[in-house]
């Protein structure tokens, strides 16, 4: 995964070992919002003809992990235990922004629930680092990517346009997914789903 929010996995593996598998803890948008984001990605492709963006499914990355595959079952139990004490919450996507030099994204308006979740997930770090693996990397600015790895000229032109473009939608986060790939040449695949407690304000999600 190439982003400006995580250290390069290839660099970290040079330090900790190339045997480590790559994991992402993510939120998948609700189906109706997912379809709207796919449509936005298609519109971007129609205008700028960047084919790679169509191949990447919309997701919000909460954290990235590099761990030994033998730790996977224990890792899943840890994450489920933490999630079982967290309530679901409303997530609002509000308009666009960009990360230089190549990423156009949808902004997450309310990051507070994720801060609480990230704080709880930090309990995992002791276990992970005790197994000679690197600490969890948390996303510093939550977002859903519309397009990344853009050429410089396309990024500059798109950022000017998308700064004035609007998008607003909300959905309830009821679960997290754990995705896995063995290396940068593989595609991430879902391996586990972790349910949260019912949202305390489930009846007040804005649309």
In percent, how much strand structure appears in the residues?
25-35%
How many strand elements? 9
The assigned structural class equals alpha+beta
Tell me the series of helices and strands, N- to C-terminal.
Answer: HEHEHEEHHEEHEEE
Report the C-alpha radius of gyration, rounded.
17 Å
Low-pLDDT ranges: 1-5, 203-207
Description:
32% of the residues lie in helices and 29% in strands. The chain is α+β, with helices and mostly antiparallel strands. A hairpin with a 7-residue loop joins strand 8 (175-181) and strand 9 (189-195). It has six helices and nine strands. The strands form two sheets. A five-stranded antiparallel sheet has the order 5-2-1-8-9, covered by helices on one side. It starts with 8 loop residues before the first helix and ends in a 12-residue tail after the last strand. It has one domain (9-204): Alpha-Beta Complex (Cyclic Phosphodiesterase, Chain: A), CATH 3.90.1140. It has helices at residues 9-16, 31-48, 72-83, 112-121, 124-130, 152-162; strands at 21-27, 60-67, 89-99, 103-108, 137-138, 143-147, 168-173, 175-181, 189-195. The protein is globular.
Write the topology of this structure.
Layout: H1 9-16, E1 21-27, H2 31-48, E2 60-67, H3 72-83, E3 89-99, E4 103-108, H4 112-121, H5 124-130, E5 137-138, E6 143-147, H6 152-162, E7 168-173, E8 175-181, E9 189-195
Antiparallel strand pairs: 1-2, 1-8, 2-5, 3-4, 3-7, 4-6, 8-9
Question: Brief overview, please?
Answer:
By secondary structure, this protein is α+β, with helices and mostly antiparallel strands. The protein contains six helices and nine strands.
